[in-house]
Here is the input.
Amino acid sequence: EPEVTQTPSHQVTQMGQEVILRCVPISNHLYFYWYRQILGQKVEFLVSFYNNEISEKSEIFDDQFSVERPDGSNFTLKIRSTKLEDSAMYFCASSAYYLDGNTEAFFGQGTRLTVV
Amino acid sequence: AQSVTQLGSHVSVSEGALVLLRCNYSSSVPPYLFWYVQYPNQGLQLLLKYTSAATLVKGINGFEAEFKKSETSFHLTKPSAHMSDAAEYFCAVGGGSQGNLIFGKGTKLSVKP
Here is the structure.
């Protein structure tokens, strides 16, 4: 069964460093997403990406965040200068179509980012 | 705006007992509602979804959920818990102007032998 894969599963980084979280969405999907979950809190939407550009983003997704689909298979989330409060589980997801309720979003297993 | 509230961050049941995980939503538009499950070290997997076709929705692994508009609820149930049901369960709402999902905080289900 096709699945979304994320690497690494766990990343530890020093405050102020740049990190890149990687995702390989399902191959025929067109919409890509990043979500995060700070420990004990809700899973929060960060950004959606379609047709090589950001289609929607939340207020969390500020200038320190960026996304890219560099080679047609990977979908990356970059955090330019990490802060302690960026420590969270980051989920990548993809869907074949726009999420209107008839379409399922498939999620990866997550990358746990720890900023020290 | 849409939101989801999951009552109880941790629910513990005995094997064979009824599982009831609560979810209430708020939405200004007809909602699409979802339950996702996350087993340890795995991604979020769709259990079931409500898209206005039927108020009682059956999902995988014997789970079902009933959409009650009057109560703005979408509680998840399973008649008889199994040890393998131990996981974290997330309720989510979609269908707003944004093509994304709004999640609840999640409920961790423990099953005692």
